[in-house]
């Protein structure tokens, strides 16, 4: 079985209108391709929750603050299509940049507050690009439900804010982070790690877990975070962009563990920027 690949919004909408006329629910899984088990878990969740499933594959230039990162982003469409066939998705929507951003495109969506810290502070303009393309993908696909990974925890919060604030008629479903056996969060960017970097990479999650345990055991938050950041660098990471404890709204760092919290981190290894987060 192969999956139909559509490139034009008009063709996609014709297909979705047919499904809707038949009373079927539609799920969308937005991706940038180079698919792995994390993406497939979202597609399976969509299959379980909706009659029809669209996976979008679009490397969105507007969300890359670093041109080299955009250039080096892995593109593996044939392999992606074969993987999605095994899950039984109905259609892949893989538009060309001009279809998404035609000449004269002049609109941007910007979510303030939750977009500002963490990834937002280190990747200026990133979440404006994400919010803009996600709003467009919701409009293009007319999906009833959209599936996002908790691996990109802050992105999930930004998308939930976007949908609430603009009254978009789509339900956001968050799905747990899929990890390699050694704890490394699956990510398309992992493919760019060297052999030695791949061995070092699980150190980020390991030190985050250690910090979480320490904080639960009463070690002061600042001391636990400082020790974890130092351990990540000692493991071989080149830099730690942030390693922060935040409350649900992500707005302010938490200085004491006095309620539900999320530990979020970004660090660079082999020039590849990895992110992760866990509940504390
Ligand atoms: N390990 C994972 N577990 C669960 N969901 C994931 C995982 N990795 C990515 N996703 C989700 O898949 C969707 C598409 O993500 P994307 O295409 O950027 O993949 P990625 O592997 O996160 O790539 P990147 O290298 O850019 O981080 C997002 O909702 C993202 O959160
Ligand atoms: C949601 C998304 C597909 C928007 O381009 C992207 O940010 C991603 O892959 O997480
Ligand atoms: N996975 C989030 C998309 C990005 O890093 O640009």
UniProtKB/TrEMBL annotation:
SUPFAM superfamilies to which the protein is assigned, alphabetical: Nucleotidylyl transferase
Class of the enzyme per the UniProt entry, highest EC level: ligase
Keyword tags: ATP-binding, Cytoplasm, Ligase, Nucleotide-binding, Pantothenate biosynthesis
One of the GO BP terms on file: pantothenate biosynthetic process
A Pfam family per the record: Pantoate_ligase
Source domain of life: Bacteria
Localization in the cell: Cytoplasm
A GO cellular component entry from the record: cytosol
Major localization class: cytoplasm
Sequence positions that bind (R)-pantoate: 63, 155
Binding locations of beta-alanine: 63
Metabolic or biological pathway, per its Swiss-Prot or TrEMBL entry: Cofactor biosynthesis; (R)-pantothenate biosynthesis; (R)-pantothenate from (R)-pantoate and beta-alanine: step 1/1
Subunit structure: Homodimer.
Name listed for the protein in its UniProt record: Pantothenate synthetase
Annotated source species: Cereibacter changlensis JA139
Gene behind this protein: panC
């Amino acid at each position: 079985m192969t999956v139909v690949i559509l490139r034009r919004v008009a063709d996609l909408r014709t297909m979705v209108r047919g499904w809707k006329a038949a009373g079927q629910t539609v799920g969308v899984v937005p991706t940038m391709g180079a698919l792995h088990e994390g993406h497939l878990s979202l597609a399976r969740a969509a299959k379980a929750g909706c009659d029809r499933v669209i996976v979008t594959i679009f490397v969105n230039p507007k969300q890359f603050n670093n041109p080299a990162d955009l250039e080096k982003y892995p593109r593996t469409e044939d392999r992606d299509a074969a993987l999605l066939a095994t899950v039984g998705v109905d259609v892949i929507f893989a538009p060309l940049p001009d279809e998404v951003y035609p000449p004269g495109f002049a609109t941007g969506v910007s979510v303030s507050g939750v977009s500002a810290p963490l990834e937002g502070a280190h990747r200026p303009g990133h979440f404006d690009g994400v919010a803009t393309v996600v709003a467009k993908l919701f409009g293009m696909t007319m999906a009833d439900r959209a599936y996002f990974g908790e691996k990109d925890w802050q992105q999930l919060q930004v998308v939930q804010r976007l949908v609430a604030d603009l009254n978009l008629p789509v339900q956001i479903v968050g799905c747990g982070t899929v990890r390699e056996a050694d704890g490394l969060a699956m990510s398309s960017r992992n493919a760019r790690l060297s052999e030695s970097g791949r061995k070092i990479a699980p150190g980020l999650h390991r030190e985050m877990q250690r910090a979480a345990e320490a904080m639960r055991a009463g070690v002061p938050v600042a001391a636990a975070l400082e020790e974890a950041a130092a351990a990540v660098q000692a493991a071989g990471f080149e830099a730690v962009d942030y390693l922060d404890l935040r409350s649900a709204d992500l707005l302010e760092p938490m200085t004491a563990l006095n309620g539900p919290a999320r530990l979020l981190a970004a660090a660079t290894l082999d020039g590849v920027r990895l992110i992760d987060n866990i509940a504390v």
